[in-house]
Every structure is written in C-alpha cells, then in structure tokens.
Amino acid sequence: MKRTFFAFLLLLASFAAGAKSFSLQVIQRNTGGDSVFDTSYVVEQAIMDYFFEHGMIISSNQVIVSKRDDASEKKELRRSLIEAKTGCMDLFVKLCLNFALEDSMNPSAVLLSNINDAELEILSTETTETVATGKYSPKVVPNQNDNRGGVESFATDIAADIHTRLSKKGGAK
C-alpha cells in the first residue's frame, strides 16, 4: 500500500513539474543464448534508479534477448511500444546492449568488459518518430572497474545523457 501511495505521489509531482514519462526497453544482443544476463538487469536497474531519484516517471519492459535485426526482436519491440503508448508514456527508450564475449573469462558475470557498446534510440510514442539517438562504449576498463560497480557507473552515465537529451527537448526537469 505504501509503495502504491508513493508511486502515486511521484506521478503527481512529475506531472506538476512537466516532466515526460517514458518506457525503457533493454535489448541484450550477441550473447548466444536465451537467458538474460545479470549485467542487463544491472544496467536496467541503474537507469531506473537514476530517473526515479530525479522524480521522473519511468517503466520498464522485460529484457529482450536477441540477435541483431532478429525478427522476434522487432515483434517484441513493436509490442513494447504499443504497451508504452497504451500506458500513456510519452517516450519509448530503446537501449541495445551489445556484448563481446569471445575473450571473456566469465561471460555471464557482471563485468563491464563484457559489454562492447550500447546503442540508444528514443522514440515518441505518439508519432513513433526518433527523438534522439546515441552510442556509448566503455572506455578502457581497468580491473578495479571491471565489476558490478563499473557496470552501474556506465549505466548511470547513459541515464545522465538520456536526461540531458530529454532536457534539451523540453521533456525533463
């Protein structure tokens, strides 16, 4: 009950501030299987936490495990976009995590070095037009950052960039 009440207050505060709401879709690519890696969940949660702390309304969809340009990925994205629009979200944020696991000592571990790059596309749910795009690559990953904290930091940097892009478009306060 407390959680619902808090979410309602957050909703009211965000609308009062004029902030746009959005739905986050994380797509895990190049992992060679059907299971979602913990790394994808860590990225998703760090982005959700960032926007929650900034008083914005954000929802997320189940992480999609896909191969690049896979037909099932396109079908799932279409479904997620429709759900975002039906849920009265203003924007749909698609974040593709491209993994590079060939040289990984532990592909399923939460390691920043397992992420090759991330591709961002922000769409309007009303028009389905692209509002913004971006690409992020972890720089050289020192051993002390090749862990959960490094993944969270990378995701928080992406979230901050999304926030900046939305602010420039008048959609974030």
Number of helices: 4
Low-confidence segments, given as residue ranges, are: 2-17
**What's the overall average pLDDT, rounded?**
85
Q: How large, in whole angstroms, is the Cα Rg?
A: 16 Å
* End-to-end gap: 28 Å
Overall outline? globular
Number of strands: 6
Structural class determined from secondary elements: alpha/beta
Q: Could you estimate the helical fraction of the residues in percent?
A: 25-40%
SSE ordering: HEHEEHEEEH
Strand content: 15-25%
Task: Write a structural description.
This protein is an alpha/beta fold and 173 residues long. The protein is 40% helix and 23% strand. The chain is built from 4 helices and 6 strands. Strands 1, 2, 3, 4, 5 and 6 form a 6-stranded mixed β-sheet that branches. α2 (38-53) crosses α4. The radius of gyration is 16 Å and the shape is globular. The two termini are 28 Å apart.
Task: Tell me the layout of helices and strands.
Blueprint: H1 2-17, E1 22-29, H2 38-53, E2 58-60, E3 64-66, H3 71-86, E4 91-99, E5 115-124, E6 130-136, H4 148-168
Parallel strand pairs: 1-2, 1-3, 1-4
Antiparallel strand pairs: 4-5, 5-6
Main features:
173 residues, alpha/beta, 4 helices, 6 strands
Précis, in short:
The chain is an alpha/beta fold and 173 residues long.
